[in-house]
Each structure stands twice: as C-alpha cells, then as structure tokens.
Amino acid sequence: MTMFLFLLLLMKLCDDGAALPTPVSLVEPVPMNVRALDVSGDALSLTWDYPPVEELRGFRIFIEHEDLKDVKSISTSESPPLNISHLEPYSLYRIWVKGLYEVEGSGSGSGEDGTQEVKEDLRETEKSDSIQVHTDVKAPGIPLLSNASCYGTNQIWISWSRPEKFTKTIDTYLIYYREFVYKDDRVTSFQNSLDFFKQLEVEAGSGDEESFIIEGLEGKTTYAIRVQASTESIVFENISFRGDFSQQMLVYLPEEDCEEPPVSPFGDEEGELSAGMIAGTIFSAIFLLLSVVGFVLWRQYFKAAYYYLDGDPPRVVAPVGIPDWEGEPGPDGEKGPVMVDDFPSHVTKLHADSDIGFSKEYDEIQKYSCTIVNATHEHSSHPDNKCKNRYLNIVAYDHSRVQLAPISGYKKTSDYINANYIDGFQKFHSYIGTQGPLDETFDAYWRMIWEQNVYVIVMITNLMERGRRKCDLYWPKEVNSSEVYGHIEVHLAKEEVMANYTIRVMKIKHLKDTGEKVNTLRKKKWASSDREILQYHYTSWPDHGVPAHPLPVLSFIRRSSRSNPPDGGPIIVHCSAGVGRTGTYIVIDAMLQQITTKYELNIFGFLRHIRGQRNHLVQTEEQYVFIHDALLEATRSCITEIPKDKIVNFIDILMKKDIISKINLLQRQFKLITSFEPNDFHFMSSRKSYNVSKCRDSNLIPVESFRVALSPKPGVEGSDFINATWLHGNSKLREFVITQHPTAETKEEFWSMLWDHNAQTVVLLSPIDSDEFPVFWPTRDEEFDQECFKVRFIEEAIHEGHSTYDLVISSRHDDYELEVRIIHCPDWPSLTRGFAVLKLVQDWHLEYQDGPLVVVDKCGGTDAGTFCALTTLCKQLETDNAIDVYQVGKLYHNARPGLWKTEEDIMHMYKVMADLISSNIENPLHGDESSSYITTTTQAAPAMAIPTSNGNINGSAIPERRHSASDCQSSSCSLSKSGGGSSTITNNNKDTAVNRRHSLPGGTPLLESEDSSSVNCEGNHLHDHHHNILSSSSSSPSSKKDDEDGMIDILQHFDDDDDEKTHLTK
C-alpha cells in the first residue's frame, strides 16, 4: 500500500512584510494496520501504523464489548504497542483507533508531574479499520473433591464436582495421588512436592459430577489424593490452563477387599460331605420349618405392636467416670490444653505463614482417623441398612452407634440408625451425631428421640442448598398440626423465626393402644407418655465455607446447649451428613464448657478423641480454623447476652476499671466492637471514581458484602450503587436498610432502591433543608418520573414531633404499584417519648413485612444505626428476656464501619434499655398477641411457649411486589384520612381500607423535649439525650450487690489484645 502526502505552502505576512511558509496537511493522519499481539485471558498488546505527520499529537483507542465501550487516550510519546488489561476472559472485543492532530489554537502541554498531556480540544481523524479480538480462556476454579473411598482390592473410587467458575468449558481433569507420608517437621508445600505424586489425566464429561477409579494401588497404605481442572487455550496450540488444586483427601486402602469375604460354613474342603454334615443339614431344615410355623401362630394370637416388655423406653447406661481426653498432647507431643490467657497467641501462631499451623494439626487428625481409629462399621454396610444411609461414605461406627430397641416381629436390622454417641466435656454420651433424616428413616429417628430421652435437637442445615436435597422435612409443616411417625405422634406447637435461626417447640407422645389385640398381661404403661422437644434450627450457615462471623454461632450454641435439662438425654446434633457442621458445633460447645470450668481448652485433643466415635467430624480444615476463631472471640468477649434482671446493674459493671489495665469494661467492649479494620477490597464499589461523589461522608460507606445493590442499567457504570447498607434485625438477616439523606444526584437511586427491594416504610431522621438536605419526594400535584416507574404524592399529615408522607410508586409497564410511607422524625432521639417513635414505626411496618425498613439520617451514621439497634434490642428483650448490645454493635460496625464514634454510643444503648426496664412500662414493640419467652433452665425441661413466627422460614424474607388492589391509576384516586387515625384509598368503584395510622395509637402525638440539639455526621451525641427518653430509676442496693458479685467475673476474662462436602448420594 503506497501512501502519498501532499503539502500546500500558504504565505503569512509578518509585521515587516516578510512572508513565512506554513505547511498544512491535506491528508488526515489516520492510523492503519491495527493488530493485537500477545492475547491472554484478560489482556492484550495493541499496535498500529501511522503517518509521520508533525501535527499528530496522540491517539484515541476505542474498545467495545457487548453494550460497553471504553476509550483510552495516549500521546505520541506513548507510541504503540499499548498494553490493555482488565479484559473479560473468553470474550469478543471490537477495537479501532483514531488519531489526534493539532489545529489552530490547540496543542499539548505538560501535566503537574511533567508528563505530556493531550488536550481535549484536539481534532480526531477518521477511525481506522476495526479489528475483532477474542480473549483467551483462563484457568478454571477449584473442583470440589467430595469422596475418596476404598472400592476393591488395590482400587480407590473418587468423585468430585466441576468448579463453579470456569471459562468456555472444562476439558480435562488431572488426578494426583501418592502414598501419604507425614513429616513432623514443616510440611512441604503441595506445589513443590508434585514430583512425588503420580498423575492421571481424565477427559471431562458434560455433567457437574465426575468420578474415577484409581487402580493398581498397594494395600495397607494411606493415599493422599487431589484433583485439578484444566481448560485448553483457544489462542495457542497444545497449551492448557490448569486451575488450583482441590483440597487433599486421605483414604486408607486395606490389604484385601474393603469388605471381608464370606467364610464357607463347610471349611476349605470342596470334596465329599460327611454323613454328620448331611444329618446336621436335615435337622436344621426341620428346625427352621417348625420355627416358621411357631412364629406365624405367635403373630396371629399376639400381633405384637410397638411395645417394650419392661414398660419404659430403654435407657443406655453410659460408662462410669469422665472421658479421658483433657490431657491429650498436641500434635508435636507438647502439652495439649492451652490456658485461656495464652490462647490468643496460640491462634496467632497457627495463623502465621498462611495458616500452616492449622494445616499441620488438621493433617495429623486426618492421619489419626485413617490409621489409628481402625473402627468397624459392619451394621452400616449391611445390605438391609445401606438404604438408610444418606451418603455412602458416612457410616456409623459399630462400637459407638446408637442401637434402637428391637421391634418384635421385625428383622434384627430394625435396630439400626446412622447415629453415634459422642462424648462431651466431663460427660460420656453428651451428644448424638446423626445425619439429616431420610423419608425412610423418619420412624427410626423419632424412635431414637423417644428412647434416648432427648429434649433438644440441633439442626445445622437447610432442607435444600444449592438446589440439592440436604435433609428431608421430618416434622409437621404447619404450626398446630401433627404427624405420626411409626408409633410416635409429633405435634408442632410453636415456632419462632429469628435472623440466624428458628426455634420450634414440638410435643411428642407414644401411641400406646391402637385398638389391636395385644398381650395385656405383658404390656405395661409408659412412665411418661408426653414430652416437649426444642428444635434449634440454624438457617444462615452459608452453602460454602463457614459463617462470616462467629458471634451469631456462639449465641446459638450457648442458647441451645443450656436448654437441655439435667435429667435430659443426649443433645441430637445433625446437619446433612452429620459430620462437618455437626462436629463444629460439638467441639465449640465442649470447649466453652471447658473454658468455664477449667479456664483452659484442648481443641486438638478433643477432636482426636471424638473422631474415634464418628467418622469425619469437623470435615474440612476451614471448619477447624473457624472453631479456633470462634473460641478466640468467645474468650475475648465472654458472655455478652445480659438477662433482663441484670441489665440495670450491669451498667455499673461496665464502668468499673480493671486494676491492672486501668481501663473499664465499656472501653474494652468498644475496642472489640470496632476492631474490624476493612481493607480497600471491602469497599470495592464505594471507592470507584464514578461512585465517590454519591457518598456524603467517605468514612460512612458500605462494606461490599453488605451493600444494597440496585438493578444495573446497561452501559451505565455505577448504576447499581447507592450508599446504603443491609443490617440484620431480630427476625431477619436483611431487616433494615441504613442510608444517607439523598442528594440531588442520588434521588433517583433512592427511589429505585425502594422499588427494587419492595421497601414500603421509610424512617427519616434528618431535618429538611432546602440546600444541604433537600426534599427528595414529589410534593402535592407533582410526579417524579423514572424510566421504569413514577412516584406520585398522595397525602401529608403533620403532628407534633413527626410527620407522615404517603406516596405511590407505579410501574410504567404493568399495573403493579408500591405504597410507601415516609415517617419524618427530625428531632429523634431528643423526643421526650423516644420509644414512641419505635412503636409508631413498628405498628405501621408490621403491615408490610415483606420489605425492609429503610432508616435515613444525614450520612447513614450513628442516629440511623442506633434506631435499628434499639428496635432489634427491644424485640430481643421481648423474645429472649435478655439483650446483647455487644453483638448488635459489633455486627453493625462490621457491615458499616464508622457507625460508632465513641464509647458513649454503646453506653447510650445500654442506658436506654436499662431505663425501659427500670421504668416498668410495657415494651414498646410488644406484639398484639401475648408472647412469652423461650426459657432456659437447669432444673427442669425447657418451657414451651414461643411467639408464633411470621412464616419466614429462613429469617430472610423474599420481597414480593403486590399487585394493585386499588386500581390507583387515575387522578381521581386519592388516599384520604378516615376516623380513628386510619386512611382509606378511594376511587369511583370501591373503598379499600389499608389501616394507615398517622399518629400513635390512641391519638397520642409525639412530644418534643425542651433540649433539641441538631445532629451531624461526625458525632450524633445520642448519649446526651438518653435521660430524655425515659426517666431513670434506681435499683435495690442489695440486689445490685448480688448481681455485681455474679457478673464481675466477666472482667477477668477480657484480653487486651462447611458447607459439608457433597458426597455420592443414593
């Protein structure tokens, strides 16, 4: 290709009349021959040719991918090739280049750092020919190695799940295996020890699940196995990208077959049978025939129902004494128990160098389980019982299995259930670890509960996780309904749904006489025919990994464990397989008891001990790490849930200074509450350049995992962002949204948030100022239009201390609408009756439970956070008869760091709740129906009365936008006040009551206090007004002294400083 450049000389006269030639380019310097080099999965190098024209000052590179376009500008000093990064793997990009050349009055200059800058007023050339570039694939994610089991002589069967993240496809899997050799010195990294592994390459299938049989292995050997996924490059030939390795699994291969071969009753001789053997066979046949006839006659006359001959459920006698594990040594032979004072440094040491200490300890436990335990499981492997196991490789050891009482007239295998006794702290058989019941094992499961005198069930799984059945529904579905399982009738009496777990009260009884013929001479009455069972169902354990923070787990474990009465049987603990999360619960509970009693803990020794009672307890290293982190939190924070009758005196304890450290408990609590220091990746969205201006205060922005996301607009960067954070409440994980007062720039995002998340109640705590804090809703006779919906003003009602604004959001595409009420309380918390605000909001919001409660203050800070916290604490006081300010404060800080400024913000919540209790007034959030509490006792069986649930099975309701019931589509439709503080939507056809209250029930308005100070983002000074909310009352000096003695021990404990693997299912 030949390029021609034509120049025309123009004459310019100088002041002295001389003429100067001025060259003018007649051909634009259009870039040519654009090409991509070094293409990878997320980057490429771009180069092009361009004419050597003096006026050329730079280039603009246009990168287009689907509906997104990016533009990069460079000067000629940054001549190609240009490196382009942050691309999506396995994606098609269209790229072209334009030149930038200088015209009269333009040019380039130097920036502040001395680099050359391209002025934006430079003229662009025509674009070059565009090219299409397909980025390469990237390495796939980690496959989930779910099973590794002995399959036959010299064979191991393994199965795994396809990685969740990959590009294009998974082409092959690489299986690494070798003889496992444990070294006492530092463990060599897996990557550096690949030379010791044998490798198999397996072509990937099209499904999510894969399996393979490794053959040619040696018996009496423990093998270590890992799996790696691989994807072939689409750019380079014979190149594949390999992902990270799966977690290592250990499996012991016996010398012979996995199951012992049957032994011939006739010995080793295959020749003639002796006369004695023949006679014995005939005699045996006759005896068998007579036995069958006798059995038939016995069944006909006695028809044995499910009764025990001794009249009472059988009791298993536990061994005498206490389990011997407390003195178990550590992995290197050092002392096993760790003193509480030394535990923080112990955990820090294990976390060092990428958790190498945890890996070493956990590998030692795995080795012990594979080589030392050597327990049999013949009953689990019996053909009649295999269908009773949820997973093939999760078995019940014979020596510790729970053996059910035999049923007359049934096979001997009717005594089997996949469950094991597990020891606790200083007590044998403290727990029963079992799998999530199957449909066909419901009868056996409830028999076990009846026979073992069980009062407490702990369930740590959801019925479905990631689309897979983890457990079957083994209790009645509806409250006040009953189901019969075998001869056990189960009645679901009550259910209480909370943010992280649900408590169910069930009454069970044995159906003694069904009207059939029974042997009345031998049957006895049951000693007790009815029993109440408490089921604690933890619902927020994530599908993968472990919970984000241990505090809710610790609260759950303490509450469920102490509910078991002294005369109760073992606590049943189950997840899906009954090993991973089940073991995690048991270890934490036992260690908490050891800490309380002996001020020391031995995690390693206890887990080794119980691994000999049920296989795979604490199934992953991640769960083992979580146990340590949870117990570290427990030793630092101690008991933070304060009973109702201790709260008033606990405030004095908070202010007592420690003799050694010279700081008080409140200061220690505040330090722990605000100890989480987020990194930049926690604020990934908030810190992006196009979102920074949307935040009033850069110190009050959402952590990414708690950020309220909007529906993104195609091609608009940052369209899914609003400075808003999800906060948990007492009933839901996403009960509140806390956000800043909308600006003119973020007003549209605010209404989009209400629409997207079905939020119908907004509490506005900031004042209305025309400049800094403007009105963000349409006023009378106005509409606010957005792309998908419009906001229409309905009605305003002004009262002393608060105002309400009713609006309707209507869809532009169908007849869906959302009714929204804004409750404006600009003087809260300086109101004399501040709790009345909580009741006002709660009474209104109860009618709209599907969506979250949105709380707005100036910057989404302390005022809004305190409002949410006090609402949660009042509900907690109602259901638990106790409050946990520490837990609420810490979890709120972790979601929105900067929420609490000083210790006084925490003390304010303690004082307000103490004032509420000491004033003896009714809890402002007390429900309409009488609610009693789940009580815990150490003298009798747990109490049964629990508030009924709101129907939300997992503590996090899914919003469902309501279909228009009022046909509020025309201007003739309005929302008008009716008598009694309610409102009615009226139109030409019908009146629909919606019970909208514009003031407190009973017509009582909110009163302002004389002291009304303004609130700012930096320090809301809520503590200055706590005495204006409720008048304080002093407690009895004698009771105060008793409580102080009982709780001062807390000061001494403060320190300064699974998803289960998915196995092969039936």
From TrEMBL:
Residues 30-121, 139-256 form the Fibronectin type-III domain. Its main location: membrane. Residues 966-977 have a biased composition (Low complexity). Residues 1-19 form the signal peptide. GO terms for cellular component: membrane. Residues 105-130, 945-1066 are annotated as: Disordered. It holds the Pfam family Y_phosphatase. Residues 116-129 have a biased composition (Basic and acidic residues). It comes from the Eukaryota. One of its GO terms (biological process) is neuron development. GO terms for molecular function: protein tyrosine phosphatase activity. InterPro entries: FN3_dom, FN3_sf, Ig-like_fold, Prot-tyrosine_phosphatase-like, Protein-Tyr_Phosphatase, PTP_cat, Tyr_Pase_AS, Tyr_Pase_cat. It is found in: Membrane. PANTHER family: RECEPTOR-TYPE TYROSINE-PROTEIN PHOSPHATASE (PTHR19134), TYROSINE-PROTEIN PHOSPHATASE 99A (PTHR19134:SF540). This is Uncharacterized protein. The lineage of its organism: Eukaryota, Metazoa, Ecdysozoa, Arthropoda, Crustacea.
